[in-house]
Amino acid sequence: MKRWTRREDERLLTGRGRYVADIEVPGCLDAVFVRSDVAHGTVRDVDCRAAREMPGVVGAWSAADLSALPSCGPTAAHLRDLPPVPYTLLAGLSTAKAVAGREWPPLVKDRVRYAGEAVAVVLGEDRYRAEDGAAAVSVRIDRLPTVATPSAAADDSVRLFDGLSNIVFLGEAGKPIEESVWREAAVVVEGHYRQQLLMPTPMECRTILAVPDGDRLTVWSGHQMPHRLRRELAALLQWPVERVRVAVPDTGGAFGSKSATFPEFVVVVFLAVKLGRPVRWIEDRMESMLAATRGRGQDQRVRLAADADGRLLGYELTIDADVGAYPHLGAGLPMQTAWMATGPYLTPKVHATVRSVLTNTMVTYPYRGAGRPEATTALERAMDVMARRLDIDPAELRRRNFIPPESFPYETPTGRRYDSGNYAAALDMALETLDYGAWRAEQARRRADPHALPLGIGLSCYVERSGGEAGGLHEFGSIEAATDGTITARCGAASSGQGHETVFPALVADVLGVDEDRVRLVEGDTGRQPEGVGSFASRTAQVVGAMLQHAAQLLIEEARDRAARLWNTPVDDVTWAKGTVHLTAGASTAADAPTAMGLAELVRATGPLRVGDRFEAAMAFPFGAHAVVAEVDPELGTVRLLRMVAVDDCGVVLNPTIVRGQALGSAVQGIGQALYEGIPYDGEGVPVLASGLLDYLLPTFTEVPPIEVKDTCTPSPSTPLGAKGAGESGCIGTPAAIVNAVADALRIADPDLLQMPLTPDVVWRAARAPKPEEVR
Fold first, then answer.
1. pTM value > 0.85
2. Residue 266 and residue 33 in contact, taking contact as beta carbons nearer than 8 Å
3. Which among 8, 46, 540, 732 would be 20 to 30 A from 622, CA to CA?
4. Which CATH superfamily is domain 9-144+208-254+258-282 in?
């Protein structure tokens, strides 16, 4: 892997990227959705008549109106009503039981369940005219009581679906812990933590363009799983999948939020097929902030027990998870938190329980880290509380409890099988890079100076799972050699900015021993790669990369076999080196036969050469240690990050430049969760986001401290490349380190006082709470 500059950057940075909004299709209509400004209520009337009279408006429909919409062609004659939004399988668990009786309508018919839910759609000759039409739609909704947190919704006093509980899923990992463990432990610490709802906030919001052509449909979308989208759209249309093509152009980020079939997608495709015209929906920023998927959203209770030497005895995690108004996308997602509750520690007894609860908020879905940040934050905050109670240095407490390298593969009490790890090495590197001893000395100096601002050091050690769950750890692909010497690699992935165009051709070129400029990548198009899984769960290097390595090796074997037949010699007499087949010295063959032949020449002599396969990989478990130094002003409640170190281990790194960029980007998102980001709601469950990103605070360059990224390398024995996922580390390790640093600075006795985001108000109030010595 020699290319450290990304192939795609020249195109993207010079404005030549091609996104869904850039695709020009003659006769295309733009869709704009009319959305509820009420979080929970009964729909009394949706009147679209005035909208239809607006200049440039082609049509405006409520759900009831669409039932009467005639079809403009025989391929849509069977489509009468809007099909419901499909549900998905997440975390290896079917959501079918949770969904039963809780249909998610693409357009609301009777009852709104979250602010921003679509109640009508307007099609215009362009976006501006459609917006004018949407403003003319009259909507009347009778308000109902709302519940905006899982703890508030769990008692079913306000039910989102009549006759059905708000609790849609119950799960557990590990076994219940005997009371004797808690009773006999030297120290037991407890805490209640809120993982606030977050917005993934990609640069490009959700997009879809549906283009009908006779009995076929082409869909353009910035999507992470085009083959899944094709399957689900074909099922909604009751068409064979061969009639639907999904293509992914350049995509401006996703972070997990673009891998479903959303209500708006169902409406756009339905209208395109019914009208026989192209229809496009480009979500704008305010619309995204109101109606796009959310991440995180858990209320957690933790209990951690240890003996007098700090050896962990038991850990209990109870989760009430906010899955939003419908269980279709995230009912089983919190099991990722439960399964990863063990963290990097040799805790003999671990038990995690999950309740997934419906609330009057937009649906929760995977967001960068997807369950693992929640697990790490709960455990790592408890570890720091335990260290203070035992008067043990937080680094030493962790070191005493790490799973040792010789114990791998390690079966956790919660059912995970960790493949490899050296957790102490990552922590030691983080401490050394941070200059931990010097900062502790500076902290002691400040504590002796009544005029100095408090300073805290926070640590966080994490383990994550990458690759996906059983049943989704495979990928499809092929490699084809052409007569001009070019090589085309195809796979079922779809990039949303991770650098696939750089990494995968370099990987294939490395296996084949050819110049990487000869290799091009085709992905994100069901018309050019018929089967695929997609890009999510930090799986592309680990799973897709392994598949392409496997395909390249198949091509080498096929080339050797062809050369052997061509030269009428045993295949063992043919070798491969640097894109060329060679006849072994001394092997018998025709006198005039060549002793070497390049790949292009071989293809010209023997015909098209293409190999493909389905390749199965395995889970991997990246890990790391993050360290933060923070200065706190108790009078203002402000937090200033002075230093951050992120040490991550993702096994064998395919491209250091791209992995470093992923680490930095995810660390910034981790800063956002810890200090700034959170969806503010009014008393009736409506997000207060009138000023857009001025209300939902993302960290900017000004707020980001110097971040030093380091890595250790513990190859995964269960993946052919030794690679593990690399894209989510900062979101997982950084938030807990920051909160621990603030708690350390303020010497807080009650950990419940610090709930993310650590806004000035939260910090100011926590700074005035009794200190440990005052509690005693």
1. yes
2. no
3. 8
4. Aldehyde oxidase/xanthine dehydrogenase, a/b hammerhead (3.90.1170.50)
